[in-house]
Every structure is written in structure tokens, then in C-alpha cells.
Design a protein that fits this description.
- By secondary structure, the protein is α+β, with helices and mostly antiparallel strands.
- Helix content is 40%, strand content 31%.
- The chain contains 10 helices and 13 strands.
- The chain has a 6-stranded mixed sheet, covered by helices on one side. A 5-stranded antiparallel sheet has the order 8-9-2-1-10, sandwiched between helices.
- Bound molecules: zinc ion (ZN).
- The site of zinc ion has 6 residues, from loops.
């Protein structure tokens, strides 16, 4: 089964549903970032959450999910868009609490922190945040929806581990009341999610529509079905822009010491070397801008 996002409606009950499967994406991210099992578990949940938020139809733009916490994992960041591209990083990748993964994830988050969502819609940025209370990404995401969104929402994230693979299966499901829907339909889905319906389906390896039917009932009409993948938009050009931010003085120091700049992308670990000649070009351009400026 490939990673994907399924968006659709339950017209008779006035519900919108979004399902994501990001198992391959999360396993690739685990390798990229060298994540130990507990860091990987939390990052898998965050990738599923980011993909769900990115797929909400009103946005269209980018969505960032950010967690700051005082536990060993420190925090994490996920960047997602409506086209199924996700990427991100974990502040401390090498966290592992053996035993129950959910309990380990709870311990890794610590005792306090924030979950915030930043949306970029048509160049306008909107941020809303909640304190981490449940110290569980799924539960605190539910609190975020309750605090930030005007519509009744049910959401859950499932990470299933198996033997030495902490990310055997990673899924997420979100249901929202449509303007003509009623809250009791969302309530019913929330009840099944609370009873572990998403996790049970993920553990059995259920396909997307099978999972949606099990958790939400019959009558799903698929609107869109898109691939999800870990994709990064970094480039040598962006690395040069990042180096420009050092200013003429900072670039002068790099030229005097290292003679070249190495920029590592925090999302995909790609390394870009900005050569001595390129640094001199950038410094000349910046100096000209400062002189004219
Ligand atoms: Zn990158």
C-alpha cells in the first residue's frame, strides 16, 4: 500500500473525512534523521497530523505544525502542503524509552509545552497554539481543534510498531461537520475513535476506504485521492540565500576561516557547499546593496 491522502464526504450525515497513510514517508524520515524509536513514534504522529492539516480544503497553502516541549525530545516541526508533500525534523532525534511506545512518547514530551499550527493562506500567516496538557500529540491536537476551529471535529493518529520497526504503520483520520451537518454524527465517530477504531484498523493493515468505513460507517464518497511523500524543496540556490543572511561581515569571516560554507538542510539533510568564488560573489552583491542602500 502506497502512502496517500483520501478526502471525501458523507453527504447523508453532513461530514467531511480525511484519511492519511504515511508509513513509508515516516520510515524514510526515520532513516534521514537517524531517529531512535521514541523520537520516530512522535515524528510519525506529527507527519500524519501535518498531512491531515495540509489536506483541509480551505487552506490550499502551507501548514506548519510545531511542538515545543520540556521533555527529552525537545520539540518537532512538520511542514506540509495541500499536494501531499511533507517534511520536518525532530529537535532531539535520539530518544528511546523501551516498552509501551505511547507511554514512551508521553515521557519524551515531558511535562509542559505548546502545540502550534501556522497556516500560510495567500501570503497571510495565521498562528494558533494550545498548551500541551494531555502530553499526547493526538489528544493535544484534538484540544487544538476545539480551541481554534469553529466546527466540531474528530481526529486521531495511529502509529503501530512491530518487532524492531517502530513505524510499521502510521495513519491519521479526521472528520469534520459540514455547514449543513449535525454534531451528533461527529460525536458518534469520536466515540469509535476513542475506542481505538483507527489503531485497530492500522494494526490489521486495513486499506484507506476500509478504514474510513469502519470508523465512520457507510456512505463515503471519495472526492480526491493523492499520493503523500517526504519531499523537500531545498536547492543550491536556497543555500546561497541562507548564506547571504550572514551579511558581508559574516561571509568575510567564513572566507577567512573555512573558505567555503557548508549548508545542511534541516529537513532532508542534503549538504550544499557554497564555494569560495560564490561566497565572494555574494559578498560583492551584498556590499553593492549596502552602498546603494
Ligand atoms: Zn532539504
Amino acid at each position: 500500500m502506497a502512502d496517500k491522502i483520501c478526502r471525501g464526504l458523507f453527504p447523508s450525515r453532513g461530514l467531511r473525512a480525511v484519511y492519511v497513510r504515511v508509513g513509508d514517508t515516516a520510515r524514510m524520515a526515520r532513516v534521514l534523521h537517524g531517529l531512535y524509536p521514541t523520537s520516530a513514534h512522535l515524528f510519525g504522529e506529527a507527519l500524519a497530523a501535518g498531512a491531515l492539516l495540509g489536506a483541509l480544503p480551505k487552506d490550499g497553502g502551507r501548514v506548519n505544525l510545531q511542538v515545543e516541549c520540556d521533555g527529552p525530545v525537545g520539540g518537532l516541526f512538520v511542514d506540509a502542503d495541500g499536494a501531499g508533500n511533507v517534511r520536518g525534523y525532530v529537535r532531539h532525534p535520539r530518544v528511546n524509552f523501551p516498552g509501551d511506545p505511547a507511554r514512551g512518547a508521553h515521557a519524551a514530551l515531558g511535562g509542559s509545552g505548546f502545540l502550534s499550527v501556522l497556516r500560510d493562506v495567500g501570503g497571510q500567516r495565521y498562528r494558533s497554539a494550545v498548551e500541551l496538557r494531555a502530553l499526547s500529540l493526538a489528544a493535544d491536537l484534538r484540544r487544538w481543534f476545539a480551541a481554534s476551529e469553529q466546527v466540531a471535529t474528530g481526529v486521531d493518529l495511529a502509529v503501530v510498531s512491530r518487532a524492531d520497526e517502530p513505524l510499521h504503520e502510521v495513519t491519521g483520520l479526521l472528520v469534520q461537520r459540514l455547514p449543513d451537518g449535525d454534531d451528533s454524527a461527529v460525536e458518534a465517530v469520536r466515540g469509535r475513535l476513542a475506542a481505538g477504531a483507527l489503531r485497530d484498523a492500522a494494526a490489521r493493515g486495513a486499506a484507506a476506504q476500509e478504514t474510513i468505513a469502519e470508523v465512520c460507517g457507510d456512505g463515503f464518497e471519495l472526492l480526491a485521492d493523492a499520493e503523500v511523500a517526504y519531499r523537500c524543496g531545498c536547492s543550491a540556490e536556497r543555500a546561497r540565500v541562507a548564506v547571504s543572511a550572514l551579511g558581508t561581515e559574516g561571509i568575510g569571516e567564513v572566507l577567512a576561516n573555512e573558505r567555503e560554507a557548508v549548508v545542511t538542510c534541516e529537513f532532508c539533510r542534503a549538504r550544499y557547499v557554497v564555494s569560495e568564488g560564490e561566497l565572494e560573489d555574494i559578498a560583492r552583491r551584498l556590499a553593492a546593496q549596502e552602498a546603494s542602500g
